[in-house]
Design brief:
By secondary structure, the protein is mainly alpha-helical. It contains three helices and no strands.
Length: 67
């Protein structure tokens, strides 16, 4: 997910997206633990998406929604 796409989301949608990504990361880690993970690179991609969402949330918190 690109940061431009994330910036278009409302604050409530950002919270929902963050919860969705954290849930996906949990499921991927569980699959990795039982050796059923098809694409191990997906874990790092989800981690980066979580970081993007958190960064944009912090940016909105500091500078307002117009940044």
């Amino acid at each position: 997910m690109k940061s431009a796409e994330i910036r278009k989301l409302a604050p409530a949608e950002l919270d929902a997206k963050l919860l969705e990504l954290k849930d996906e990361l949990f499921k991927l880690r569980f699959q990795q633990a039982i050796n059923q993970l098809d694409n191990p690179m997906r874990i790092s991609a989800v981690k980066k998406d979580i970081a993007r969402v958190k960064t944009i949330q912090r940016d909105i918190e500091l500078h307002g929604a117009n940044s």
